[in-house]
Amino acid sequence: MFTGIVQGIAKVTEIIAAPGLSTLVIDFPASRVEGVTIGASVAINGTCLTVTHQEDHHLYFDAMQETLRLTTLGGLSPGDTVNFERAARIGDEIGGHLLSGHIHTSARIVDIVRPENNVTLWFEIPAEWSNYVFPKGYIAINGASLTIGEVQGNRFNVHLIPETLRATTFGTVEKGQNVNIEVDSQTQTIVDTLARLGYDRPPSIQN
User: Where are the Lumazine-binding repeats (predicted)?
Assistant: First the structure.
């Protein structure tokens, strides 16, 4: 499990392609890999991956083709930066909201607004996932736990303070870029339960 509090930015240094999978070699800040062991879980742009090898502060992760297809990891290139978070431990403070590291879908950045001292990002999400997006609700974008601002159809925005821009890759994102989305599990459960009970359908017209 993860908390959605991004612990830093790491850089992809190499991608090793093999039949059925790709190995991502990622350079982490040295202080962030202390105590890492083979088999440890790390969220890379919100995607839970397993450490398969370590060389100093370079960690290796194997990503299956299905993972590359369903997430934005398949579009990474050497030199790209990613958000990372090591798996939560018992007793850790939950500053965001609990995440599984299993990506549901991707969204596209459709607008970037830069008023003074903050940034507003607008995203477009596939219509079938918009049922789980509510104003003031939680959502994880590239592994960061964020609060949804406005919602307009299948578009929504988030407002980012300078510290979030500094500590994550959001400070350098561009319009048209795709991001990983994990919807809030509690919201998904409530919406799906109501749908099974028929509350997602308009009331029938009585004659």
Answer: 1-97, 98-194
